[in-house]
Amino acid sequence: MNRRTVFACAALAAAVLVACASPAPSVRVARSEPRPSAVWIADVAVLDVATGKRTPARDVLVADGRIAAITRSGASAPPAAAVVLSGKGATLVPGLVDMHGHVYANSNPIWNPGLPDPEANLRAYLYCGVTTVFDPGDQSEDAFARRARVASGELAGPHIYTAGPLHTAPEGHPIALVREFAPWWIGWYVAPRVAVAVDSVEEANAAVDRVAEHQPDAVKIVIDEIPLGAPRLRPEVARAIADRARSHGLRTVAHIGTTRDAIIAAESGVAMWMHGVYKERIPDPEIAVLAGYHIPMVATIEVFDSYARLRSGPRVATALERETVPAALLDSFSPVPEGFSVGSLTSWQELNEQAVSARSENVRRLHAAGVTIFAGSDTQSGVFPGPGLHRELQNLARAGLTPIEVIRAATLGPARFLAQSDTPDWGNVAVGQRADLLLVEGDPTRDVAALSAIRAVLQDGVPITRTPVENPDR
Asked: What is the pLDDT of residues 1-51, one digit of tens each?
């Protein structure tokens, strides 16, 4: 059997599995039809994320996809054809941004991997008030087409910014993980395709040129050892990628794990750290060094804490998880199957469990030193699209960010980065802003948990009908 035939058979086998598998229950979301000419949100508290000021008793008019007016409640009447939403007792905040989301991902336990359902993931994000996702690693062939389908309104989901495939060292992360955990019959095919492996300046230049043809929103590199001791990009290769990306008008973002990784990435010219320093406590003198680079960091505390909880017994599901995740899947994380081993990840897992308090403390210290922190979930096993970001917001609060700082880390801050502007036309609640909005119960400037109590979601000024997953036992 020649190589082409082998690849065709493997692809066919995967396609057959997709076709034969019963689709898992998932949330449903839909834009209001027909599209309303206007939306009137009555008697609501409006949060200006830029100033941190929450102003009660306001009426908000949304028209043509933007915030048209914010007035004192009762000062005027809504347009005759407007859809009216009650904001009494609620706060209007910008739609949330997950700065490390994954659209082409599966959240099953690592001992029971499944196939991604990107459209279901997009619906779950939007259900949870995530109106924008930055996906720093989508290896699927239709990553950029999916971005366009969402932008055109053909596909329901948050606005997508994507880097497309990530770039790593030969046999580096995540290639090594696929070889470890994917079933043998497909792992050999998927492993070399889960990321772009580069090992020289010439290969780096060619790889960036290829992805640049698709107009990605960034280029992603991996500077981390997973499992411990795995190959990682050499500094000169990382620098070549960042330089070549810059020649195309693109920024580079870097997956890091240690203080040394963060410094290598910064010296290579990256624009953002993806993950905090999660493996160790940052030495005191290096806090100022990292702050001096003026690079924002997407902390992603939750993804590593989720793996650290792997052997801690049953997980307590959040309300949003119960609304968006099938009960059978929630229950499947415990107990860990007898005899299951993480194999070559054992030393990494032990290190990860030991560093739980250190990574949260690192975020607190870096934030205090002036490092801009963004919120991101890193959707994967145990981290669900949508609810994962809300867990991360709680983590940032526990790490010492004030409620308004947490909200800013998931709204205006990311908007400024993605729009490459200090005054983006989205990410805040102000006249003229794009009306990606979240109406939540209570006051999130006192407790960020209020962001999970969602009364309504608007995207591009259109109310979203949200139907939870059917979990009769919940």
From this structure: 333 323 333 333 443 344 344 567 889 999 988 899 999 999 999 999 999
Residue 472 to residue 474: CA distance in whole angstroms: 5
Positive or negative CA dihedral for 284, 285, 288, 292?
Answer: negative
- Residue 7 is predicted with a pLDDT of 32
Q: Residue 17 corresponds to which amino acid? A: L
CA gap 451, 129 in Å, rounded: 9
Would the pLDDT of 295 be above 50?
yes
Q: According to the model, what pLDDT value does residue 313 have? A: 86
Residue 107 neighbours by CB under 8 Å, 6+ apart: 325, 329, 379, 380, 381, 382, 383, 384, 385
Write down the pLDDT at residue 460. 97
Single-letter residue type at 216: P
**Residue 337: burial class (beta carbons within 10 Å; 0-12, 13-18, 19+):** exposed
232 closest CA partner among 268, 208, 202, 206: 268
pTM above 0.70, yes or no: yes
Q: Tokens standing for 189? A: 């095919």
Which domains are seen in the chain, by residue range? 30-94+429-467 (2.30.40.10), 96-419 (3.20.20.140)
Residue appearing with tokens 């989205």: 426
Which residues 6+ apart lie within 8 Å of 424 measured at CB?
412, 415, 416, 418
pLDDT at 296 exceeding the cut of 70: yes
